[in-house]
Amino acid sequence: MPRRVRAAAKPLPPPSGAGDRSGYNRFQGRVPAYDDFPTEETARMSPFKAYVIDQDAHRKIVSRMTTLTAGQLDAGEVGIRVHYSSINYKDALAATGAGKIIRRFPCVGGIDLAGEVVDSADARFRPGDKVVVTSFDLGVAHHGGYAEYARVPAAWVVPLPAGLDLFEAMALGTAGFTAALGIVRMEHNGLAPANGPVVVTGATGGVGGLAIDMLAQLGYHVAALTGKASESDYLRGLGAAEVRLRAEIDFDKVRPLEAAQWAGAIDNVGGPILHWVLATMKQAGTVASIGNAASFDLHTTVFPFILRGVSLLGIDSGYMSFPTRLRVWERLGRDLKPRHLAAVTRTIDFDALPGAFDDYIQGRIKGRTVVRIGA
């Protein structure tokens, strides 16, 4: 018989807005006790290493490595031993306090995780299954991927798709999933390689670089827009057919409509650059708005929409339905799997995580960072 360890359950309200999709109803808002999952693996969970984001008495963000017990994990049907996580710009904003990301304190950071199921109250998942979890409230209002163990609602869990291993899943992570979702949405809106070039802004970032790689292997002519002239060879190596420099464009003098250049666009920056993108789209062009690295403002006109039939698609990967999430991940293991994934990915150990965030805030990082948690 597996050893049973008893831990007192404590009340915990579900994250705001989580609703039925969060999976909290199974435990009626409480943290599962060990007795909910009486296995040898869960008995070995305590204590384990975690990177926790908290506030001090002055509401200043204080992040630190610490240890947790399984009884401190949040509610959810699926327990996971985390092998890898990753660093996204959002993670850096959360950990440093540079952005108001965390909605509940304290919270284990990390909006991505990939690992192995150790226990499950959902029949779809069994111990030993390899799984991926991204988005929803993970690492924001629910303990996330920067810990050796996690417990999450089953509705958030995706089986590791064929064609990917756990490391590759985190080399992609939220950035890769979001880039792929943007491409899928644009395809559904009629985008095809024969329509013309696609421009990618914020090209050296995690989403931008992966988007270039995916689009190029699908047969698109890809233009990379960047502020870093020194990275031109890197971007061409990912598949960019041309590199445009931001310094060559006067964004303050962009007219409502400029010369039509692009059939599609993936924008990661917002602000004046997104205005320029819209003004330079071809007839019936499609723009996927993914990020706001430069600005959350958008000052534009209706002309691109009513005179050229341009579509502006908002890409929110956070609460995508499970069927869509599964389809996108399956494509990431097939035709959308970047050819240069290894070249754009670096790996750090868990202990190095606290020192890694500032480079993201300062814009010194290109590509993706995988965090080796328990592999």
Automatic annotation (TrEMBL):
One of its GO terms (molecular function) is alcohol dehydrogenase (NAD+) activity. The keyword Heme does not apply. InterPro entries: Acrylyl-CoA_reductase_AcuI, ADH-like_C, ADH-like_N, ER, GroES-like_sf, NAD(P)-bd_dom_sf, Zn-ADH-like_protein. Keywords: Oxidoreductase. The keyword Repressor does not apply. Residues 63-371 form the Enoyl reductase (ER) domain. It comes from the Bacteria. Its EC number is 1.1.1.1. CDD domains: MDR_yhdh_yhfp (cd05280). The lineage of its organism: Bacteria, Pseudomonadati, Pseudomonadota, Betaproteobacteria, Rhodocyclales. This is Acrylyl-CoA reductase. Residues 1-25 are annotated as: Disordered.
